[in-house]
Amino acid sequence: MNLFVYGTLRNTYDNPMAQLLRKNARFVGHGYVPGRLFDLGWYPGATYEPDSPYRVWGDVFALTNESILKQLDEYEGIENHPDDEYARRDVTVQLDKKQLPCQMYVFLKSDGQQTLIESGNYLSKH
Prior knowledge:
By secondary structure, the protein is α+β, with helices and mostly antiparallel strands. The protein has helices at residues 16-23, 69-75, 122-125; strands at 2-5, 25-34, 37-39, 44-46, 55-63, 86-95, 98-107, 115-116.
């Protein structure tokens, strides 16, 4: 399974969850999905909108140990509850000249009040 990450799990971060991901996955490359990226403080949230003119940039990892998904879901606050901020969903990521099916943590609470990161790249924000 491939996982697309766009925030604190990206390849350049060194927090414990990013380290866990790198130890249990193979880096595939950089890519993007159509959608919007929001600044939520110390972390971002991204929507997946196939018809969006905006892009969300991130990294794709091929999981070599899918058992870490439970820990990553907990990190993202996924409890399968209506108040969850995120859900893990199937998306299509554009990598160079190919498209790749992936899962990503999609932000569910977009209401127009969040600050849009226009570049679509959380790394360029910092």
